Amino acid sequence: MWGGNVFEGVRAYWLEADRQLSIFRLRDHLARLRRSAKCMRLRLQHSDDELEQACVELLRTNELAEDLHLVLVAYLESDTVWRTEETGIYVTAVPMPRSNAYQRGFAACISSWRRLGDDTMPPRVKIGANYQNSRLAQEEAIRNGYDTALLLNQRGTLAEAPGSCLVMVRNGRLVTPPGTSGVLEGITLATVEELAAQELGLELERREIDRTELYVADEAFLCGTLVELQPIVSVDQLELGSGEPGELTGTLQRLYDRAARAEPPYRQWATPVYERVEA
Ligand code: PMP
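# 4'-deoxy-4'-aminopyridoxal-5'-phosphate complex -> structure
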């Protein structure tokens, strides 16, 4: 009712070699669901263990065996939205193959809509109502012939895309807007940060990014649970670098794929759905 919910989008990956379905970073998503509920002064009725069990049972009972997108929605139980903190919760799962823009990349524009500010709604958490802001930006971008939008924040520096975080590569450095730029605290971004540090010895710098600095970046990509890592090949019809998906972006895509698909040493992020049957 009235956008009265907080939610999470989570991916599960089908691992053919193991005949296993693996939920990626579920505990981190549940932790963010709690942060969203806290900011909106809502009470969740279930523990993380119970919610994890609900996700596993949903997938197991339906005998699902493909890449999926799970959504957990904690919604206000009453329509008197300002007088209650009680919530119900539901979980859904739908098949979600990888986007075909994963290889070719996205043409992005700077949106005429600004990202909502922390003095209006909390942008750092996942609140259903925030996505009307995202929807306006994405609809405008598509209508104007682009694949996606990038939103500036209230100060006029870059925030993020309608459903993913932004990373820029400049002179071999990875840069992303800080949490105070009106961005969601992204779990994919945190994964990228960890992989870049561990595997490539590269630090993810968090600092403000101007619109024109992005124009002259060498590479850029979006990262989010749904889009995974998506190259941006142009901004406002200006090509980034060669106009092709960037090299470092490609390297990080491959590393992320290994982590998301629970390859060693990245098993710690995986929640297996099916009981292991020993041969
Ligand atoms: N920003 C917004 C507005 C989003 O909806 C998402 C997707 N949840 C992200 C960023 C990326 O967050 P995550 O990597 O945790 O999915």
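# post-check
The chain has a mean pLDDT of 95.
Residues 50 and 56 are 10 Å apart (CA to CA).
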